[in-house]
Each structure stands twice: as C-alpha cells, then as structure tokens.
Amino acid sequence: MKDYRFVTLDVFAKSRFGGNPLAVFPNADGLCTEDMLNLAREFNMSEVAFVQSPQNPENTAHVRIFTPGMELEFAGHPNVGTAWLLASEGRDNNGLLRFEQGSGIVEVEAQRVGGRVSACKVAAPLPLTRLQTPCKEAIASCAGLAPDEIGPAALVSVGLSTICVAVSDTVLSKAVCKPDAFRKLGEARPDLAKICLLYLYAPFEGGVRARMFAPSSGTIEDPATGSAAGALTAHLLSETGDDSLSLDIIQGVEMGRTSHMHCEARYVDGAVRAWISGSCIPVMEGKLL
Fold first, then answer.
1. What is the pTM of this model?
2. Is residue 1 pLDDT above 70, yes or no?
3. Separation of alpha carbons 150 and 136, rounded Å
4. Same domain, 260 and 161
5. Domain residue limits at 21
C-alpha cells in the first residue's frame, strides 16, 4: 500500500479541541471499501472522509464518508471539513465545490475572508421528507427517558433520516443513549435498523441546544451533526407559516466539545431545502503507511 496523506480538523469549532473532529484523506484513489472502513475504525471518530476522483469531471470529487460501523450516503460535518480542506488547497471553482455522494450531488460554498477560507456552507442534497414517526414510548426509551419527558417528535430527512424530539433543557442534559432500545426499535422498524439518528433539542432565545445519539452507526453520541441540524431546521420551518428560517444550533456541550452550527431553511419550488454552515480548525497532518 502506498502512502496516503490525511489531515484532521475540528469542524464547527470556535477553538481547537472543540467541535466535531474529522479525518480527511484528500487523495484517496486506490483505497477500497474495506480499507476505508478499517481506517474509520482506526481513527474512531464520528466520521472519516475519503476524497477520490470524480466520476463526472464537471464535479470536484467523489467523496465517501464512513463511520466506525458503516458508510453514509450523506453527512454534514464531513462535507464542511472536506470542502474547507480542498478549498484551502485551491481545489474549488471560484468558491464552489460539487461532491458526488450516495445521496446525490452535494454542493458546498467556500466563504473567504482576506483570502483564507473562513467557513463552508453545505446545501443538503434532498428536500425535506417526512416519514412515519415511531411511537413516543420507543423514542423516549432510546434516550433513557419517560414518554412524558419528551415533546413533539418527527422522523424527517434532508439526506439522512433523523428523529427530531423537543425536550426541556433539563431533560436534554440528563438523557442517556440506550443501545438496547435502539436495537429493539430497529427490530420493529426495519427501515431504522441500519441507522437511526435521534436528535434531541431544547430551544433557547435565538437558537436551540441539541444532542444526537446513533449507536447503530457506531456513534454513541456525536458532538455535531450537520445532517440532523439541517433536518431539524427544515422541519421547524415547515411547522410555521414563514418563508424561511435561520437557526444557530449548539451541540456537544455534554461531551466537552461545544460545536456551533448555523442552519438555514427556505422554500424552493414548493419544497423546503436546508443549508448547514460552520468553520474549521486544522489540528494534525500525517500519512497512512
């Protein structure tokens, strides 16, 4: 095996060792699926991104995203971090990047200040989709809560299915991921067996604070989940009579890795679309031997 360079970044971070850590292999041609999954397990981060040559030369790259347990069709923080790295190395097209992924083409805008990439804004690949929401008892048990401790819930997606659940700030802090309950939910709902994101959120003035559990994907808790944040913002907009919604989402507090995401949702051709943006801080660089 030849040497493969990697870079780690703290995504959605305002300071180093905050946000959600990500490893990116910016030139991953030659790595097979098994290699990528093994590397994701070796890094043991929420996700690792592998950049390969695009199938269509009009696109920037073919980007594959792996958790320690599986490949994902779409995810937020790997797209933000990968775009930040490629744009910083001049691999964007006037600030635009197009990534081929399982969910479709993901478009990212690299924003610059003084010639440096300051943030990246990811367009979720799919419009808001609603699915049949599991019962409150099953949802609450996944977070170690009683049914009367959770508020309205909705199973929605803008690229990755997410159960968004309103809770109080006190309940948010005391929630605990229960893998056995997730397993039972997957047995009852085969569509949620492979991956099920549970996104608990508590509103505060100007935004929401959130936590995400997804043990079926190999992630007990995630410090920042862009796909879920985008789905939540799109869902909340659809519940109002407004044309658009801008939301600041804080996640990862309980993990000691506070993350800051900015999300937008608006109607496009009658459907709700979402965008997720944030900044990155590079941390380490090395090579796979």
1. 0.94
2. no
3. 8
4. yes
5. 4-122+278-288
